Amino acid sequence: MTQRVRLAISRPVQGACGKTGSWRVFQPRVNRDLCNACGICAMFCPDNAISENLEIDLDFCKGCGICAHECPKKAIEMVREEK
Ligand code: SF4
Ligand code: SF4
Questions:
Q1: Of the N and C termini of the chain, which has fewer Cβ atoms inside 10 Å?
Q2: pTM of the predicted model as reported, rounded to 2 decimal places
């Protein structure tokens, strides 16, 4: 996969209410065969939960689906959490 430079300078941190916990309903899953490593998903993630190598930190991901909505390659699928 193509290496890219991370543009965002902030990192996800534990908020006042702690990590995301168990309330998330959907989580993003990246299809690496479709992904071109453009990094747009990481730029739009409001929790900055997507790393330089496009790993998604589920401790902080809220399952909002913005990354999936913004991905130009439709490489992110939102899948229901298994409880
Ligand atoms: S679902 Fe939302 S919080 Fe989770 S990685 Fe995507 S944009 Fe970030
Ligand atoms: S926006 Fe889509 S194509 Fe671009 S890095 Fe994210 S998952 Fe890959």
A1: C
A2: 0.85
